[in-house]
Amino acid sequence: MAKSKKKIHYAWWTLVALCIIVGVGKGALNNSAGLFIPEATSDLGISTGNLTIYFSIASIVTMIFLPIGGKILAKYDTRVVLIAAMILQAGAFVAFGFSNSVWGWYIFSIPLAVGGVFNTVIAGPVIVNQWFKKKNGMALGLIGASQGLLGALAQPLVGRTIADAGWRTGYISLGIAAIIIVVPTILFLIRKSPQAVGIMPYGAEEEAAVGAEPVDTEADKGITFTIARKSAAFYSLFLFFLLIVSIASFAIHIPSYIVSLPAGYDSIFAGNAMAGYLIGVLLGALVLGFLVDKIGSRNTIYLAMVLAIVSVFGLLFGTNSSLLIILSTTLFGFTVSNSVGTLAPALTSSLFGSREYSQIYSTASLGLAIAGIVALPAYGYIFDITKSYNIALYILIIMLVLNIVLVTYAFVGKKKLINEGHWK
């Protein structure tokens, strides 16, 4: 008699839930933020630079709350924490819709960031680590792709809502819709742990069956944090993180840039362009991850930086072509956004190995936080002063070229560390 089909492991249902949570939290909510800036600043008479300071406040809160959030998620019921987080994050969008001064964005950026710490930063890696002992890399890749997919679906809808009903209705509708979609998903699909439903994590059964003792392989080797933090390779990595996030931060300003062009594009077109951006994020999460495995992180980063330069030139000089604007925006999402989520972690591993990866990566990640605090309002003030984003776009090109130099120098530094016998 044939064996009955094996049931789908609950880890996959958990992954579906995470794709929805992160896709809505990051793709639909966070990535739609830029669509509201032109209308809100115009209506309330707020400068773009002053309004976008709220992104810096959110970045500071995120940096402070990250270690606290990790402890909360470990201690309390996962469903309760994630539901509260979505209410905070999406509720902040609803509150923005009722704001009449820039202080509304400054105040409500705090719950926005606190909720976002769980929904967009911690939940994916922590819960995948609980549920997957095998194929966890693929699981994280699918979560990254979901951000692009759900964001691409949301952007045109948000742009249309802003154009037809106003930015206030856009904020309120998006916030309420996020809560309606995500809260039931959490209630029905998320569980505290595999043990809570009486099963082992996906792949753990195979590991237990093999029963082999762990061996000291190359995967366990690398450079210690103490040595790494004093090296040229580490400082190059830190600066790469800082620059790539500074570049990626411009995505928030893309809708404002498009609407400011003499060609007369409106918020509906800006929403369609941002949908293209998020399709690029989706495709890039899959393609660049594949290329890292095939040609290595260094060569993949070189390719991504060159393509990103092409995308910025397209934004600068293709302003009269709606097709070229959308293609350039899509290519920007394909390369730059995934350089933060896919290439930066891979670069860290290539340079320093796995021995003390978490310490090295988390310390270098301070560059990510610093960039988020500074870059977002800086682009806004450039526009306020010059009435154009062109200077900002030329700065992006310079930073992309510098990243190629930094990655090259980082691998020179790695070679020196290996020659000195620090790779163990």
Overview of the molecule:
By secondary structure, the chain is mainly α. The protein has two domains: 8-205, Up-down Bundle (Growth Hormone, Chain: A); 217-424, Growth Hormone, Chain: A. The chain is built from 18 helices and no strands. The chain has helices at residues 10-29, 33-44, 48-51, 53-75, 78-96, 102-131, 136-165, 167-189, 204-210, 225-228, 232-248, 254-260, 267-295, 297-317, 322-352, 357-364, 366-386, 390-419. Helix 2 crosses helix 12 and helix 12 crosses helix 13 (267-295). The radius of gyration is 22 Å and the shape is globular. The termini are far apart.
**Which radius of gyration do the C-alpha atoms yield?**
22 Å
Q: What's the shape? A: globular
Contiguous helical run count:
18
Question: Poorly predicted ranges (pLDDT <50, ≥5 residues)?
Answer: 212-219
The percentage of residues in β strands lies in under 5%
The N- to C-terminal Cα distance equals: 53 Å
Number of strands: 0
What structural category arises from helix and sheet content?
A: mainly alpha
Q: What proportion of the residues is helical, as a percent range?
A: over 70%
Question: What's the name of the CATH homologous superfamily of the largest domain?
Answer: MFS general substrate transporter like domains
Total count of domains: 2
Indicate the mean pLDDT.
84
CATH domain class of the largest domain: Mainly Alpha
